[in-house]
UniProtKB/TrEMBL annotation:
InterPro entries assigned: Beta_hexosaminidase_sua/sub, GH, GH20_Enzymes, Glyco_hydro_20_cat
Signal peptide: 1-28
Family, per entry: Belongs to the glycosyl hydrolase 20 family.
Name the UniProt record assigns to this protein: Family 20 glycosylhydrolase
Domain Glycoside hydrolase family 20 catalytic residues, every copy: 35-286
Keywords in alphabetical order: Hydrolase, Signal
C-alpha cells in the first residue's frame, strides 16, 4: 500500500468516525440481558495464541458479561486445527484436538460459547500451498489487478469453486472438525473472494452463494447455524440467502465504509440476524497498514451498536434482527505485537464494548 493510498484511507476513516459521532442520536433502550450476542473474535489463523492466553480471555469475557469467543482458526498465514485427514495443511503451531476439547469445555464452564471459523473459499493460502492444483487462476491479470490482488494475498489464497476436488477438500476439513465444537454455531467465512468475475470465466457469479448453500447443508446435518461475513453476499439479483444464516456485517463494500454492497436493512428484511462487526470501530488490528485505522478507545465510548459502518440503522420493524457486536482482533502483521502485548489494549476495548452491549 503506497503512502498516498494509506493517507487517503486514514482521512476517510477519520471522516467516518466524525460522521458516526455527529449522526442523529439513537436512543438506547435498556433490556434485561442487553444484546444476546456479545463477542470477542481472535485471529489465531495469522498469529498463534497460546491456550492459556485464550483461557484468560474466557475468564475476562465472563467477568464482563460477554458470552461468545469466535476463533478465526485459518487464514493465509496459518491453519491452526491439527488435521489428521489432511496433515499437509497444518501449520508449525497448531491446536491438537484434545486442546480444543479442553478449551471448549473450559469456556462452557464460564458461560462462553466458542464459535469456530475455517475461512473459505478465500484466505486459504496455508491450505493451498500444498494444493496448487486447486488454486483459483484468473484468465488475465493487468499490473493494476496484480497490485490489487496482492492486498488480499494474491490468487494463490483462493480455492477454485468450479473444481469438484475443491469441495472434497473443504468437506473433509469441515466434517473432521465439526465434532470438536458442540456449540450451535459455525463461521464459514465467505469473505473477499472475487469481485470481478470477468477475470474468472470458469466461475458462476453465484459461486459464493452456492458455496454457502453447500456448506450450510453440511452444518445442518450437525445441527449448526452458519455465520458468514457480509461482503461475499454481492451476487447479482435477489439475495436468496437462507434466513437462518447469521451475517457479520463488517463492510459496506468499498474502503470498506462506502456503500456498494447490500445494506443491513436488506439482510434484516430477508430474516437474517446481524452482528454489527463494523470495521470502524469494532476492529482492533494489531499491525500492518490497517492498524492506522483503529478507532481509539476514547472514541469507541461514543459509538452506538445500532449504527452500522455505512452509518445506517435498521428500521424499527427489523431492529430485533440486530443481535449484537463485539471486538475483532486482527493480526494482519503477526509479528507486530505478541499475545501479551495485545492483552492490555484489548482489555480496554472489551470493557467499553461490554458496556455498550448491556442495552439495546
Amino acid at each position: 500500500m503506497t503512502g498516498n493510498v494509506k493517507r487517503r484511507l486514514v482521512i476517510a476513516a477519520a471522516a467516518l468516525t466524525t460522521a458516526m459521532l455527529t449522526a442523529a442520536p439513537v436512543e438506547a433502550q435498556p433490556v434485561a440481558d442487553g444484546y444476546p450476542w456479545r463477542q470477542l473474535m481472535v485471529d489465531t489463523g495469522r498469529e498463534y495464541f497460546p491456550i492459556d492466553w485464550l483461557e484468560a480471555r474466557v475468564r475476562e469475557l465472563s467477568a464482563l458479561g460477554m458470552n461468545t469467543l469466535h476463533l478465526h482458526l485459518s487464514d493465509n498465514q496459518g491453519f491452526r486445527l491439527r488435521s489428521d485427514t489432511h496433515p499437509e495443511v497444518n501449520s508449525a503451531q497448531t491446536y491438537s484436538k484434545d486442546e480444543i476439547r479442553a478449551l471448549v469445555t473450559y469456556a462452557d464452564s464460564y458461560g462462553i460459547t466458542v464459535v469456530p471459523e475455517i475461512d473459505m473459499p478465500s484466505h486459504m493460502g496455508q491450505i493451498l500451498t500444498n494444493h496448487p492444483e486447486l488454486q483459483l487462476v484468473p484468465a488475465h491479470t493487468t499490473p493494476l489487478e496484480a497490485q490489487q490482488d496482492s492486498l488480499l494475498g494474491g490468487p494463490a489464497t483462493k480455492i477454485d469453486l468450479s473444481n469438484p476436488a475443491a469441495y472434497r477438500l473443504m468437506g473433509d476439513l469441515l466434517r473432521e472438525f465439526l465434532p470438536l465444537f458442540p456449540g450451535p454455531y459455525w463461521h464459514l467465512g465467505a469473505d473477499e473472494y472475487v469481485s470481478d468475475f470477468g477475470r474468472y470465466p470458469q466461475l458462476s457469479p453465484y459461486a459464493v452463494r452456492d458455496y454457502i448453500t453447500w456448506a450450510s447443508g453440511i452444518l445442518g446435518a450437525s445441527g449448526k447455524t452458519p455465520i458468514v461475513w457480509n461482503d461475499g453476499l454481492n451476487w447479482p439479483g435477489p439475495l436468496g440467502l437462507d434466513p437462518s444464516v447469521i451475517v457479520d456485517y463488517w463492510s459496506a463494500g468499498t474502503a470498506p465504509w462506502i456503500r456498494t454492497g447490500r445494506a443491513p436493512a436488506e439482510l434484516a428484511a430477508n430474516g437474517n440476524r446481524l452482528v454489527n462487526a463494523g470495521f470502524t470501530p469494532t476492529y482492533f488490528v494489531t499491525g500492518g497498514p490497517a492498524a492506522g485505522l483503529d478507532t481509539p478507545p476514547a472514541l469507541l465510548e461514543f459509538w452506538n451498536p445500532r449504527i452500522f459502518v455505512d452509518l445506517s440503522t435498521l428500521p424499527e420493524s427489523s431492529r430485533p434482527q440486530l443481535i449484537g457486536s463485539g471486538i475483532f482482533v486482527w493480526c494482519d502483521d503477526p509479528t507486530a505485537m505478541t499475545p501479551d502485548e495485545i492483552s492490555a489494549p484489548l482489555s480496554e476495548r472489551l470493557a467499553i464494548m461490554a458496556g455498550k452491549l448491556r442495552t439495546r
